[in-house]
Give the backbone structure.
Amino acid sequence: MKKRKFGLALSLVLAAGTMLGACGKSSEKSGDGGKKDSFTVGMVTDVGGVDDKSFNQSAWEGLQKFGSDNSLKKGKNGYDYLQSKSDSDYITNLNTLSRQDFDLVYGIGFLMEDAISKVADQRKDTKFAIVDAVVNKPNVASITFKENEGSFLVGVVAGLTTKTNKVGFIGGVQGELIEKFETGFKAGVKSVNPKAEVLTKYTGAFDKPDLGQATADTMIKSGADILFHAAGATGIGMINEVKSVKQKDPSKNVWAIGVDRDQAPDGKIDANTNIMLTSMVKRVDIAVQDIAKKAKDGDFPGGKVVEYGLNENGVGIAPTKDNVSPEALKAVDEWTAKIKSGEVKVPGTPAELKNFK
Amino acid sequence: MSKRLINILVPVVSVLLGLIAGTIIMLVSGYNPIEGFSALFYGMFGEVFYTGETIRQVTPYILSGLAVAFAFRTGLFNIGVEGQVLVGWLASVWVGLAFDLPKVIHLPLAIIAAAAAGALWGFIPGFLKARFRVHEVIVSIMMNYIALHVTNNIIRTVLSKNSDRTPDVPKSALLKSPFLEAHTDFSRLHWGFLIALAGAFLMWFILEKTVKGYELRSVGFNHHASEYAGMNVNRNIILSMVISGAFAGVAGSMEGLGTFGYASIKGGFTGIGFDGIAVALLGGNTSVGIILSAILFGGLKVGALNMPLETGIPTELVDIIIALIIFFIASSYIIRWAITRFNKKGVK
Amino acid sequence: MEYVIEMLNIRKEFPGIVANDNITLQVKKGEIHALLGENGAGKSTLMNVLFGLYQPERGEIRVNGKKVNITDPNVANNLGIGMVHQHFMLVDKFSVTENIILGSEPSKAGRINMRDAIKQVRQLSEQYGLRVDPEAKISDISVGMQQRVEILKTLYRGADILIFDEPTAVLTPQEIKELIEIMKTLIKEGKSIILITHKLKEIMEVCDRVTVIRKGVGIGTVNVSDTNPNELASLMVGRDVVFKTDKTEANPAASVLDIKDLVIKDTRGVAAINGLSLEVRAGEIVGIAGVDGNGQTELIEAIAGLKKAESGTISLNQKEIQNLKPRRITESGLGHIPQDRHKHGLVLDFPIGENMVLQTYYKKPYSKNGILNYKNIYQKAKTLIKDYDVRTPTEYTLARALSGGNQQKAIIGREVDRDPDLLIAAQPTRGLDVGAIEFVHKRLIEQRDRGKGVLLISFELDEVLNVSDRIAVIYEGKIVAIVDPKQTTEQELGLLMAGSTVTRKEGEHSNV
């Protein structure tokens, strides 16, 4: 308490309005602190919010599912989320959840790596988990995905579907994470169609649909008939380009492959036509539920990196696969079994790709 | 005498009006306004952690408010504070990373670099205005975009290897204080608030006490008369933009050396510069006023984060309530301004 | 006799002051009624009440015997009240007709019928003898013509009662004469006129009756035929006023200002001053008479260092100063009372005290090592305010809050106090009332008597004639004549100013 008194005095001196702060403090929230007995879990979104149609939304869906499975209520005594309005809010929000005595606090996205790392040091009693990054702290569980495995499967689909023997990959900012998509995809294509060529282009941005569109245009013109992306909003440009090519010439054989979630709705042209071949999905919701369940059962993987791959249902091929030939689907099933059994190890880096087979 | 009373009364009444508007919104949407506002307030000052965070948020607001106000007081509208904040941020981090010096030299050097970068970013619109009469608003808006993309590119290519952030600045150049953090329950409060307060004092001192400040104010109010009185109007325009930019640059270093300790790629503007315009206007372009309005802005920003969790009010509604409070404060200023203008005309 | 306008017992308050107290103004149909009062007496407030810009606290307004409630200018327009503002409200780039129809365009399905409008304007212009070209651009016509456009604007909107706010302040003598004719025509055509002015001569010449207000209080209404300028002046000021400026013969000594073959180009590159030469000696007042726009402004600005001289020399105390920085020139002994005191003379949002050191703030004792010494600044201001009778609540009051006369006194105090060898007084009494004019003139003469040179630029012929020791007539950027005021009449001056060189009498200096 001595610390707090000092801080109080400090704030009195510094900020004119802090007198009021003192009043606020007198209503110390010890009242509801004691009676809490159920497990509570919260998450901090980045600036996208819980309706970003991406991993924030997916994580929140996982949390809601966990909540209803365990009959928790949304709110301080169950599960809840805080939205960040800028990157300076991450630490405040993580702290707030920790201060409200949430048992487990998620930071969604690799952008929160630093914030989690700092807050975890300060609030050692709270359990934290981070998605898509690794923070090596005893009270932090790191959630990563084997994107290469999922990408491998869509690569298989692409390799068996292409007519031109040319497919394309469009990446966002180059880095370890996106390279996992690239290498997995390439390995998948080559495994089923060694003659096929994979055009690769990193646009350097996740937020430039115009750039994605232009890149897709170039690739299609040089003969590629299936494009896969791991480029966020830049990839939306790719999907739009494929759509417009198809609209101009419905006989043309072009396909897009989505990423992270089932992007089929984005590829719809009319009731009968959809240029989305399939999508590589990343089940953030499953990972979030899984870690929450473990923490609740006293089995929190603190200090560990938990990888979600095909075996854990953390990655996979999207449920929408109407456009995929039965033959390709059969191949997907075979390869899935091989990967799950460990017979095939999917490469995750360019170096591993070189040595692959 | 009564004028002074009005000066104090108007902002107080308008804050109250804003609170009433917020109350109505909450009542209409079925939330308890008392709970809502106590959560807001708790999130500002309810724990030392929040107090620390509020002061941290207030710090750059004071400086960006000063930057806008300084230009305003000399008759210029520096809308480029946002860009000056960004280059200041980058420059402070760059100096922090590039040198290995004892703290007494390193930290001041990093802050001075931030001020110099911001000053340079302010010099360009100032020079173009003075030399070619290009409107400073147009130039400084464009300078914002140049700043955003140039800093992003430097971070990506020079200060890191294709990463979205620079490495951490070494301790010797940081404003971060384990002492303050420990005593505010691990908030990110750093020594920058002392610099912000010193900045407020400095602006007051320059404008009110020095010969240069007299010239700057004179040029701001009436550059014709200033020219007739033998002042160099063009030089004062440039100087004003330079000083304004320097304040903004230092605001950037508060983030670079205090809050974050690194620079990262920005998808968009930080808002510190744009909010600074509101802070300056609300504070009546005076040092004390800016400190108070920065506390209000910073407090609302930090406090608002706490509202959804404590009360279940959705984030969007919280944004509306905060915006309404600011709107009422700002609009009553406009009304008061209009009234005084009207009165002046009438007396004649 | 019926009244077209009756303002009965009007009271208008502003926070802290009563601008109008119990003022009654009754205007008969078909008369020119003068509203006379010093600056700040409340004339404008009263007219703004009539025009619907202010609501009176007490009193009533009747138009044609009917009580009316004028809530805004539109109501006033509909009642046939029109205002010819002192500062014209015209769009420079528009034509005369476009300006006149602005806001009440005759349109059909959104299209303006320009031909009809021009015809209508031409007809109005002929009817009232205004002789305005409906298709000319505003920026191309003279100030006098612009004023007529303002008059046409009110007539076009069907005004029967025209308020003229200080209409002669901006006009040349010839233009004033023509304006007076126009007013008489307007009356003949059945209009009524309220003329706001503080120029007694005009009242005596054109008005039928005059209502005097002093310090917001109505003093009364008199028939012009029953009164004389002296009586009116004392009614207005509240004491006796001396009209003729007393001064002794000048004692000119060495030259303080010597201009030779000066050429100045204006912004368009046209020579505004074209080979002008002029000398001002210590101990004399040289008046410059001329119609506005003949190079006066450029001449002053060149002397003060604000405008570049293309060629020629300007010497102050035998030292060449052309194209030096303004501050250098100020420091070498120039004082300057600018013609636009709001724009060039004062920083209106500074306290009057800080305005008092506008040229000297960087010097001791007002500052030291770059830090201002407010104590000394305000000490000085206090002294000047007292010495020059600047009426202000305190020296901390914003300059904006002072009346025009007091602002001018402050500027004069500031400039004279620096004891310059040459004092330029540009339109020093513009917009001032008789009391203040008297004060300004006295100070100029005092300065002369202390052996300083004074250069007086004025559009008021009686001022130039009254105050100067020599008069230089400027026309198209040159001094075309130098005359002795004691042997020259207004008519002769007016002709010289118009570019005529025919009359040359004995005792006159020859053209340069």
In short: Confidence is low (pLDDT under 50) at residues 344-348 of chain B. Chain B has 15 helices and no strands. Residues 315-347 of chain B form the longest helix (33 residues). The two ends of chain B are 22 Å apart (CA to CA).
